[in-house]
Structures are given as structure tokens and as C-alpha cells.
Amino acid sequence: MVDSSEVMQYILMEEFPGFSINSGTGVYWELRAAVKKENASIIKEINPAIAAISTDELNQLRQKWFWYKEPKPEFQWLYQISPVLLLLCFAIYYFYSQGVRLKALSVKDELTSQLNRRGINKSLRLAYSLFLRANINFSIIIIDIDHFKVINDKHGHLEGDNVLKSLSQLLQHQLRNSDTLGRWGGEEFMIICFNTELNDAVAIAERLRATIEKDMKVDGKSLTASFGIADIESSPGAGIDNLIRVADERLYQAKMSGRNRCIPDLASCEA
Questions:
Q1: Measuring CA to CA, which residue among 179, 172, 171, 175 is closest to residue 127?
Q2: Is the pLDDT assigned to residue 42 strictly greater than 80?
Q3: Does residue 175 sit in the same domain as residue 262?
Q4: N or C: which terminus of the chain has fewer CB atoms within 10 Å of its end residue's CB?
Q5: Residues 96 and 220 grouped into a single domain
Q6: Contacts from 18-21 at CB under 8 Å and sequence distance 24+?
Q7: Which domain holds residue 58?
Q8: Could you tell me if 62 and 81 lie in one domain?
Q9: Is the same domain home to 202 and 137?
Q10: Which of 30, 70, 187, 206 is catalytic?
Q11: Residue-level pLDDT at 242
């Protein structure tokens, strides 16, 4: 028979692995048998067997009942380095997310949240690559706000910034999903129209021009813009730089011809 407190400790250790108990100090114990009253005669057979147990065997029983040694984890080294691994994973994630964010910011215009010139150039290279590989034509539209310097001089740069942001939002809402909008610089925007012939790009530009004149006001007067349009297939010469040069020339002609108009070719401003 063993003291009830020792039995309780043993039960706890059996039910909860890893539960550490040290009961080996100052514990008196004696190994005895207990049976029901009607089986009292069995004691006469059990007691001699208990008496025959050697000291080593008794110590083994004592270790099992009164001393519990917490096992060491097989992968204890993993617990030791896991904080380092966790910190390393966090650092990797942090720098990766920051890199993604910085990469996104590097091609975004801070004021309008549209692509900046760098982002537009990347999209232009993609469109030109598709043209060279699959002969998929594309057009560009360069938009310049008319008399924007007057707005800045009269109302200040904050108002000028508001005009740029409002125009950016209007253009974005009017474009197709396949079109790419960006701020080309200053008061100029560029639209890349993928898989779009020149005539279709002219129709898009004319619709945008009319919408800007109708919906955007400054000092109660309509805001207007001029448009230069070119497509890669019909532009003389070759390459992205030449395409931009042609669109710029047509934008300049739109300005010189009275502003608030779309110029898809030089002949249109002479007619």
C-alpha cells in the first residue's frame, strides 16, 4: 500500500506528460498488498512474494512511483533556434514587403497616383515588344492642359494640383480596361491604347476632349486640353522614341492651331 498523495502524484504524471514532480525527499514508504475481506487468505500467498523482492527491485519501484524525471525533447535544438528563425522570417518578410512597396512607388506619380514617366516607359516597352513579336498595333495619346500656367499663377499651385488630380480621375473613369494612363510630366498625361488603330485612338481622344470641356470648370469657365495622337504602325521611322516625337509634334500643332483639339496627323491641322 502506498500513501494516497503519492498515488495522486503518479496519476497526475501519467495523465499529463511533461508534468514534473519531485517527491523523493523524506518520503516514508512501505510496499504492502491490500485485498478485499473475502479474499484475506490471498495475503498469505502475496506477503512471501513481497518479502522476496530484492533491494534493487524495490529501488526500481521507488523510482517509478516517487520520482518522475521530465524527458528532454528530441528536438531541443529546434526550440533554441526557433526565435532566431522567427526573427529571420520576419526580417525577410519586412524587407520583401518594403521592396514591393518601394518598387510600386518608383513607378507611381505621388500627386495623381497614376503611373509616372518611368512607369509609362515600362508600359511603352511592353507594348512595343508585343508589336514586334505579334504585330499588335498600339497608339498613344498625349494630353496637355490648355493655359495651365495661368491657373497656377492666378490661383496658386495647390489649385493647380487639384486640377491635375481631378483630370486624372476623370480620364481614368473614361478609359477602357486595356488602356494605360500616366502622368507624362507637368500638366501632360499620356494614354497607351493597346491593340488600337489610329482612327480608334482619335475617337477616344475626341471623346475625352469633349468630356473635359463639359465637366471640368475653373473659375466657372470650362477647362480645355489639347491632344497629340500617333500609332506605332503608321508613324514614320521606328521605335518608341520616334513614336513619342510624332505625338509631341501633333500636340504642338494642336496648341498652335487654337488649342482644345485633337491632332492625329499634320495634315489635319492644315485643312
A1: 179
A2: no
A3: yes
A4: C
A5: no
A6: 18/70, 18/71, 19/68, 20/68, 20/70, 21/68
A7: 4-66
A8: no
A9: yes
A10: 187
A11: 94
Query: What CATH number does the domain containing 238 carry?
Result: 3.30.70.270
Amino acid type, 228: G
Tell me if 240 is assigned to some domain: yes
Residue 207 falls within a domain, yes or no? yes
Q: How confident is the model at residue 224 (pLDDT cuts 50, 70, 90)?
A: very high
**pLDDT tens track for 87-111:** 667 667 665 665 555 455 589 999 9
What mean pLDDT value characterizes the chain?
81
Reported confidence tier of residue 56, pLDDT bands at 50, 70, 90: confident
What is the model's pLDDT at position 67? 54
Answer whether 153's CB lies under 8 Å from 145's CB. no
Measured between alpha carbons, how far is 158 from 162 in angstroms, rounded to an integer?
6
C-alpha span between 208 and 14 (Å, rounded):
79
The reply to whether 146 and 263 lie within a common domain is yes
Query: How many domains would you assign to the chain?
Result: 3
Q: Is residue 221 part of a domain?
A: yes
Same domain, 78 and 208: no
Global pTM exceeds 0.70: no
Quickly list DSSP for 77-107: HHHHHHHHHHHHHHHHHHHHHHHHHHHHHHT
DSSP helix/strand/coil, 184: strand
Residue type, 261: R
For residue 115, which of 54, 34, 204, 175 has the smallest C-alpha distance? 175
Q: Are 78 and 199 within one domain? A: no
Is residue 200 packed enough to be buried (19+ CB in 10 Å), middle (13-18) or exposed (0-12)? middle
187 is catalytic: yes
Burial (0-12, 13-18, 19+ Cβ within 10 Å), 196: buried
